[in-house]
Design goal:
single chain, alpha+beta, 434 Repressor (Amino-terminal Domain), 2 domains, 5-stranded antiparallel β-sheet, 5 strands, about 45% helix
């Protein structure tokens, strides 16, 4: 996976298999709060392409100034449907039953995938508060519901 992790005025473009561990490692040595603003499928070749594409904004190593070009790229990538994270779900993920509450179902899916609220928030580009609110029976927006279901590779019929 290729990630864009943003600090105050810089963004790190790198590759990882575990975004949560990578973000935690970077955060432990950085005084600024870091945030994963984009996570896309790709390998070292895509990372190299992006480093070359944004070379005018290069600062040091894999860190770049948060330029308007980088902001636009992140915005464009977020406009596409979420990557398929259904592989995060174990085979014994709970199935939706008639009468199930959406919030309960989302919580069961997250636990079956062994993900924290923070991890789901990063995958969906939502705040932790938004994900927690949905799990506590707050009225989620349709867009948030769709994002949550896509990350789990699940579906839910609204009647």
């Amino acid at each position: 996976m290729v990630y864009f992790i943003r600090g105050d005025s810089f963004v790190k473009i790198g590759t990882t298999k575990d975004i949560f561990r990578r973000l935690s490692t970077l955060q432990s040595s950085c005084p600024e709060e870091l945030e994963c603003i984009l996570l896309i499928r790709g390998s070292y070749s895509l990372e190299d392409e992006l480093h070359l594409r944004f070379s005018e904004s290069h600062h040091y190593g894999e860190w770049f100034h948060m330029s308007s070009e980088i902001r636009e790229y992140v915005k464009e990538q977020k406009a596409f449907p979420l990557n398929d994270y259904s592989s995060l779900i174990q085979e014994n993920a709970p199935s939706l039953k008639m009468g199930d509450n959406f919030s309960d179902y989302v919580r069961k899916l997250r636990k079956a995938a062994n993900l924290s609220i923070r991890q789901v928030a990063v995958l969906l580009n939502l705040s932790k508060t938004s994900v927690a609110s949905i799990e506590k029976s707050a009225n989620p927006t349709l867009q948030s519901m769709e994002k949550l279901l896509r990350v789990y590779g699940a579906s839910y019929t609204i009647k």
